[in-house]
Amino acid sequence: MARTFARAKVFLAGRTRESLEAVAADITAAGGSAEVAVVDALDEQAVDEHARAVVCQAGSIDVSFNLISRGDVQGIPLVDMTAADFTRPITTG
Fold first, then answer.
1. Has residue 2 got a pLDDT over 70?
2. Is 14 exposed, middle or buried (0-12, 13-18, 19+ CB in 10 A)?
3. Which residues, other chains included, contact 41 with Cβ-Cβ below 8 Å and sequence gap of 6+?
4. How far apart are the C-alpha atoms of 49 and 88, rounded to whole Å?
């Protein structure tokens, strides 16, 4: 998704710096601009602080896209899923 916005100033946030840096390098190589920050999306205060920092630097946030895992299991029928696998993303969320 971030690569789609490569012509814009992109602020990438996530838990793993290495994967953020890889995407930022792709964006930069395509002529865009990207900054990275390690932020835990499940930490509301950290997310708010990061958003405020981005607004201070960029002036606004025009598009926000959140894609986080809450431990959901994909690719198997519900009838084959354990109750724990089914409820984990609900409990985490």
1. no
2. middle
3. 13, 14, 15, 47, 66, 68
4. 27
Cβ-based neighbours of 13, under 8 Å, separated by 6 or more: 20, 36, 37, 38, 39, 41, 47, 50
pTM score, whole prediction: 0.69
Q: Does residue 22 contact residue 80 with C-beta atoms inside 8 Å?
A: no
- 10 vs 33: CA distance, rounded Å: 6
Q: At 18, phi and psi to the nearest 5?
A: -60, -45
Q: Contact 52/31 with Cβ under 8 angstroms?
A: no
